[in-house]
Amino acid sequence: MTTDTDKKINPPDIPQDSQIIEYHDYFITLKNKKVTSKNLGEKNAELNSFFFEYISGYNISCAYVKKESKKSISFIKVEQFPFAIKIINAANARTSKIFSVKYGSPLQLPIFEYHYGNTRESLIDESHIISFDLCSYDELKFINRVCSKLNAIIKSFFERRNVSLLELTCRFGKFEDKIFLIDDFSPVSIKIAGTIEEKLPDPYKIETAAQMNKYSDFLLKLTNGD
């Protein structure tokens, strides 16, 4: 399981089939700069714990086990698929440029983008995934169905709070031949547009600790029912 905010794995006191992920107080910007943000680890753990518990009520299989501490969560130790799925609900910079639509305008149907590795030139398609045996055709069909359901659930959660879900990035893994959602519900993964009253930073262009604090605090506020 690899994200910009959870790198430290603590194996000693946990069952063999699980691992503990500790979230750190920094994030990586689009310009590949590491920025320290106070209490970001606690916020990431809180957000992930909330959303994993929330979607488990909709019969989505998650690797999430439980929140272990303020900054850490235990997960089933899966074999991760080497690609991420970006679920896009509004025109991002690439889509806006290619199709000459307004940046941020809602899409009629969500776009699924597959990304291999962690470089900016990581965009692949379904034929790459099958040709290079990143997963089987049936596994990809299942992952796509889960992504569609997950997007509907999370999008509805935000819409009920008058907020638009622009984009969500997720990853999957296998344990004992079963596929699980493994991450991620961090401010880096969840991109939303706030209300007129709440002027949020552009989630695609968060470069400073102050911007990240404001954005992550707003996400937490939504999960707390405020």
Could you state the oligomeric state of the chains shown?
single chain
Number of helices: 5
Anisotropy-based shape: globular
- State the end-to-end CA separation: 31 Å
Structural class: alpha+beta
Radius of gyration: 17 Å
Percentage of residues in strands: 25-35%
| Pattern of helices and strands | EEEEHEEEEHEEHHEEEH
Question: Main beta sheet: strand number and arrangement?
Answer: 7 strands, antiparallel
Overall helicity: 25-40%
Overview of this protein structure:
The structure is a single chain. The protein is 30% helix and 31% strand. It has helices at 40-56, 93-99, 126-131, 137-159, 209-223, and strands at residues 6-9, 18-23, 26-28, 34-36, 64-67, 72-76, 79-80, 83-90, 106-116, 123-124, 164-175, 178-183, 191-193. Strands 7, 8, 9, 10, 11, 12 and 13 form a seven-stranded antiparallel β-sheet that branches. The chain has a four-stranded antiparallel β-sheet with strand order 1-2-6-5, with helices on one face. Helix 1 packs parallel to helix 5 (209-223).
In short:
The chain is of the alpha+beta class and 226 residues long. Helices cover 30% and strands 31% of the residues. Helix 1 (40-56) packs parallel to helix 5.
